[in-house]
Each structure stands twice: as C-alpha cells, then as structure tokens.
From TrEMBL:
Its EC number is 3.-.-.-. GO terms for molecular function: hydrolase activity. Keywords: Hydrolase. The lineage of its organism: Bacteria, Bacillati, Actinomycetota, Actinomycetes, Kitasatosporales. This is HAD family hydrolase. PANTHER family: BLL8046 PROTEIN (PTHR43434:SF16), PHOSPHOGLYCOLATE PHOSPHATASE (PTHR43434).
Length: 218
C-alpha cells in the first residue's frame, strides 16, 4: 500500500525560521509596531495574515495587513539566493522516496519563495507534490494543508506521517489524523512539540535519518 511522508519546509528542511523572525520584526518596526522577537518566533509557521493577527490583535488597522506582509516578503526575499538547507534534509527525502514513501511538502510558501526553498533542499527528484497555503482556505494549525497534501499523495491519513518544527505543524497534523514527528531545528522546545501532538522528536533531518529504523517513518 502507498504511504505518504508529508514535510513542513521552513525550520524543518531549510534553516529559515530566524530569518523570518528578523524580517517580520523589521517589517513591524518599519510600520511603527514594537513586537518582541520571541513573540514573532512563536508565531512563525502561521500564514502571514494569521501571524499578523496573532501579534497585533484584532483591534489593529486591518487595512495595513497586506502592507506588512509585503514588507516581510521583500525583506525576506533578499535571502533567496542563499537559504541554507538543514543537515540531512535532501538525503532524508531521497531515502524515504527510495523506501517507497510518497514525499509531499506542505508549506505556506509559494512562487519565488517556494522555488528558493526547493533549490536549497536540492531533492526535487524525491518530491512528488507540494501543498501550498494558497491551495486551501485555512493555513496551519487548521488541518487543511495536511489534508490537501494527503489528497495529492492519494494516501489516507492512517498511512501518513507529518514532519514539522512548530506547534502549528503538530496541531495541523493531529487534526488531520496523521502521526506527527517533530524536529527541534526550528528552535522550539521538545515539550511544546510533544504537548501539541508530536509522537517522536528529533534534533534535525540528519538525526531523523540516522534514527529512521526506530521512528514512525520506519
């Protein structure tokens, strides 16, 4: 039977979370908002609109949300030519594909950003499809991104594993009914990932690859 390995990208396969923190912080600063970096870090992984709402609240000037998102996108775009893959990212995807897993990415990135992330991972030969936040009505922690990834893979939830680095990933995967694996390379504590639904937690893709035989992806 087919089985699917669904992966978040930012902070899971590519070392970008702190770039997102810095560029969101600068976008907020330019717009006159003082938002602590630790609060931005906790919100990374949400879709742009949800991130802004979480950090600025419902009483913000919502007409400026698009301006904030555009500023972040422009600032982050300066790094597209040098985004660093996390250790073992490409090797892990190719190993899973070779073992018969259908590998699908589930990310809020799209367009040029997604292209830059895929170039960093350098494992297009192992990736069957990509589920973007643009393809669904709600981003993580809603289950839709993971459910869409399963549709693309043609695999039921009970035959899938979702790997991510944030509580939003774990909640989305749990709500979609898949087994969840967390990685610490996004910067969040193990306890937070486990509380949000991670069945197992590894340091990074290289650690997961080295521990594959005893993992939910065995």
């Amino acid at each position: 039977m087919e089985r699917a390995a669904v992966f978040d990208v930012d902070g899971t396969l590519v070392d970008t979370n702190h770039l997102h923190v810095t560029t969101w912080w600068e976008a907020f600063r330019q717009a006159g908002h003082r938002v602590p970096m630790h609060a931005v870090h906790r919100a990374v992984g949400l879709a742009s609109g949800d991130l802004v709402a979480r950090l600025l609240g419902e009483d913000r000037d919502k007409d400026r949300d698009a301006e904030l998102s555009a500023a972040h996108k422009a600032l982050y775009g300066q790094y597209f030519d040098r985004l660093p893959a996390l250790p073992g990212a490409g090797e892990l995807l190719r190993r899973l594909a070779g073992d018969g897993w259908t590998v699908v990415l589930a990310t809020s990135a799209g367009g040029a950003e997604l292209g830059a992330l895929r170039r960093a991972i350098d494992a297009d030969d192992a990736i069957t499809a990509t589920a973007s936040a643009d393809d669904v009505s709600a981003g993580k922690p809603a289950p839709e991104p993971v459910e869409h990834a399963l549709e693309l893979a043609g695999v039921p939830a009970e035959r899938a594993v979702f790997v991510g680095d944030t509580v939003w990933d774990m909640r989305a995967g749990s709500r979609a009914g898949v087994r969840c694996v967390g990685v610490l390379c996004g910067g969040l504590p193990r306890a937070d990932l486990e509380e949000a639904g991670a069945e197992a937690v590894y340091a990074d893709p290289a650690d997961l690859l080295a521990s594959l035989g005893g993992s939910p992806l065995a």
